[in-house]
Amino acid sequence: MKKMTDFIESLLKDAFIEAGLDESYGRVSLSNRPDLCEYQCNGCLSAAKVLHKNPIELADQVVSTLKNSSDFESIEAVAPGFINIRLSGKALSFFVKQMASEEKYGVETEEKKTIIVDYGGANVAKPLHIGHLRSAIIGECIKRLGAYMGHTMIGDVHLGDWGLQMGLIIEMMPDGPVSIDELETIYPAASARAKEDADFAEKAHQKTLLLQSGDPECTEKWNRIMEVSLADLKKNYNRLDVHFDLWNGESTVNALIAPLIQNLIDKGLAYESDGALVVDVAEAADKKEIPPCIVRKSDGAALYATSDLATLEQREELYKPDIYIYITDKRQAMHFVQVFRVARKSDIVPEDHRLVHIGFGTMNGKDGKPYKTRSGGVMRLEELISDTEDAVFRKITENRDISEEEARKTSETVGLAAIKYGDLSNQASKDYVFDLDRFTAFEGNTGPYILYTIVRIKSIIKRYRSESTDMFTADDILPYNSLSEKKLELELVRYNEVMENAWHELAPHKICQYIYGVAEAFNSFYHEVKILTEEDVSLKKSYLAKIELTMNVLLDCIHILGFDAPEKM
RNA sequence: GUAACCGUAGCGAAGCUGGAUAUCGCAUCAGACUCCGACUCUGAAGGCCGCGGGUUCGAAUCCCGCCGGUUACACCA
């Protein structure tokens, strides 16, 4: 379905051509002065500059051919040369009707691409902490958004499941069954001991090498660690409503490392420097020095960059993705510049496969420093979620008569929305402050406010259905007859453009911004118009069809953001 | 030191391919609704868009310099 700005633009462009001007000046945008108009065109200002003419005269000329269009309620040239546009109820309701009858409410799917999203980054045998939260939330959203746009999205958690950390655990691990809680205490203990006890450290190092060379005893222990740890990680990610297609990790590509390094040497890219094997990645255009990428440490071990390169090689082999999207802390930006450059130079990834890194900022506490527990330790993800759910629970049980069980269930849904919306409504690259009170507030630009709006609409529709068997559909949609209704329609109609834009910019916060606008517009409308008591049946059905569309758009958006709405709250 | 990112009302954010009176929320003040699910709505107040310069008819937006914050700068991930 056509985007509203494109539709208006096509009319404007014809008028520009008729006025003897280039059609490129007919660009239309959402008005930044809603008090004056709904859409605007600034093209006459630029045209006048080039042609040395008076902009307002050009604007007058363009407008004159459109004055009588039934698509506009008004179109006028305004000093110094703006064209201000208001849509007619007919044109607007036509769009809304079309939206309501389409599967994705006007969003068109794109040419299908295969896209790998590398997010999560959990470590085996270590609890998820808030550092993992943003990657999970943003990654899941990007994945869902891409799928909505028609792409094949493959999410890979890319576990930290290899290397010295595993050797440490294996060395200290008892025989027989082990629980996740035990595992989680073993790692910090082993890590601490290795720092003091050189003998222990050496043993752990040996275990690491044994594991990597396929020693049966170490492999057996490793398998047990993986089994216990994966089950726990899956449980926690499920709680976040975050789901991966692939549970690969560093171990997955172990066998590829040696040939990869050999290949880099054979190609003349990798050379020895201070005992390590490195690949130069500096480019003439660099403003700052990009150090060479180390692919093998001086002790012979592979590292982060190596396993990322091997992973790329494997993904090319298996999926040939058109786009790779990595979602990590922005402090890793340099690492990805290096890895991407080596991948290009060595032809592991061909030119036409895009490599993208989204670096996100830190989630801070109110003191502006990385979020900590009250005692100053690293905040576990579980704890953060529980705290949020408790806060929501207190709110919904405060003035309401609701069963404990139902309130618990609702606070899970609402709590998750609070966390995710609080995160995603910020630009990913920026740091933000996690403010429990603010995020869980039911008013303002928050997840709960959005959910509340959805629940309200659900409730109205449910009530109508319980009172009437008369169905309503998109065909019942009539032109607006109040200003708040028009404002709601104007918001709704932006949907396809907003989603396309959010996708191309990989910017979930634009979806949040949009749904907040829709929710606000709906609430104003709701406040002004009595829907269920409307006596004119056709008008009532038109209202219902519009609020149902509003609800559906909001629901699609929150599902993309990664959370759900309860039936009641 | 070098580089990147950030600096927008008391607080939190949006706007950054240049356009009109800089947008939204929280908090504050004043009203409305108290009805379809309470937490909804309307309005007011609040700003040298970090500072200085430049380009332009026009700059929060582009360019240069400075100040402040965060981060990165080879064997961790």
Explain what the structure shows:
With 569 residues, the protein is of the alpha/beta class. The chain is built from 20 helices and 13 strands. The strands form four sheets. It has a four-stranded antiparallel beta sheet. The protein has a four-stranded parallel beta sheet with strand order 6-5-10-11, with helices on both faces. Strands 7-8-9 form a three-stranded antiparallel beta sheet. Strand 5, helix 5 and strand 6 (152-156) form a beta-alpha-beta unit. Helix 10 (254-266) packs across helix 11, helix 13 crosses helix 14 (404-424) and helix 16 (447-467) runs antiparallel to helix 20. The radius of gyration is 28 Å and the shape is globular. The chain binds one RNA strand of 77 nucleotides through helix 2, strand 8, strand 9, helix 12 and strand 13.
Write the layout of secondary structure elements.
Layout: H1 4-18, E1 28-30, E2 39-41, H2 43-51, H3 55-64, E3 72-78, E4 82-87, H4 89-100, E5 114-118, H5 130-148, E6 152-156, H6 164-172, H7 180-196, H8 198-212, H9 216-239, H10 254-266, E7 270-273, E8 276-279, E9 293-296, H11 304-318, E10 323-329, H12 333-345, E11 354-360, E12 363-364, H13 381-398, H14 404-424, E13 432-433, H15 436-439, H16 447-467, H17 483-492, H18 495-504, H19 508-528, H20 537-561
Parallel strand pairs: 5-6, 5-10, 10-11, 12-13
Antiparallel strand pairs: 1-2, 2-4, 3-4, 7-8, 8-9
Helix pairs in contact: 2-3, 4-17, 6-7, 6-8, 7-8, 8-9, 10-11, 11-12, 13-14, 16-19, 16-20, 17-19, 18-19, 19-20
The chain binds one RNA strand of 77 nucleotides through helix 2, strand 8, strand 9, helix 12 and strand 13.
